[in-house]
Structures are given as C-alpha cells and as structure tokens.
Amino acid sequence: MTTPGASSCTSAAGAVAWIAKLYRIEATIRGRPPDEKLAVRQAEAVPVLTEFRRWLEGHGPTLLPQSQLGQAFG
Q1: What is the pLDDT of residues 16-36, one digit of tens each?
Q2: Are the C-beta atoms of residues 43 and 28 closer than 8 Å to each other?
Q3: How much is the pLDDT for 6?
Q4: Over the range 39-74, which residues count as b (16 or more CB within 10 Å of their CB) and which as e?
Q5: Which of 17, 31, 53, 62 is most buried, by CB atoms within 10 Å?
Q6: What is the pTM of this model?
Q7: Is the distance from CB of 35 to CB of 55 less than 8 angstroms?
Q8: Alpha helices in the chain (DSSP H)
Q9: Helices 11-29 and 46-59, packing angle to 10 deg
Q10: In this structure, are residues 4 and 21 in contact, taking their beta carbons and an 8 Å threshold?
C-alpha cells in the first residue's frame, strides 16, 4: 500500500494523509455498537496502521534528528 493521496507529498503531508485515512474509518463506525467497531477496526484500521508504521520506519531515517519533524518521527 502506498501513501494515501499524492505520491510526491512531503513527509508531514504523507503522515497527515495516513491519519486522515484512519479518521475516515472511524467516521464510518461512529454510533455503532462496540463489537462492530472492534470488528471494523481489526479488518480495516489494523492493516492501515501496519502500512503506516512501515511508511514511518522508511521515512524516519531520511529526516534530520534535530528537526521538529525528525523529533516527531523519533
């Protein structure tokens, strides 16, 4: 899976795109019973989080550790 949205986005914009994808999943389950929320999160959000982590791990080494973004990726 690639970064949601534009393929040539900055690291910060890329991270925001991943987070937005998670928020969209949450929006679809708002108001549902807890067991349904859990099932959707496991089916949809866990794979997104797995890919997001892989994306973070790939981008972290490219950042200056002293920069604000580098510290956020820390």
Answers
A1: 999 999 999 999 999 999 999
A2: no
A3: 39
A4: eebeebbeebeebbeebeeebeeebeeeeeeeeebe
A5: 17
A6: 0.74
A7: no
A8: 11-29, 34-40, 46-59, 68-73
A9: 170
A10: yes
Please count the residues of the chain.
Answer: 74
What is the C-alpha to C-alpha distance for residues 4 and 2, in angstroms, rounded to an integer? Answer: 6
Q: Cβ(19)–Cβ(71) under 8 Å? A: no
Are 44 and 32 spatial neighbours (Cβ–Cβ below 8 Å)? no
Neighbours of 37 (CB within 10 A): 17
Would you tell me how many other CB atoms lie within 10 Å of the CB of residue 27? 8
Q: Which two tokens stand for residue 51?
A: 């890919």
Task: Map tokens 């349904």 to a residue.
Answer: 36
Q: What is the pLDDT of residues 30-58, one digit of tens each?
A: 999 999 999 999 999 999 999 998 988 88
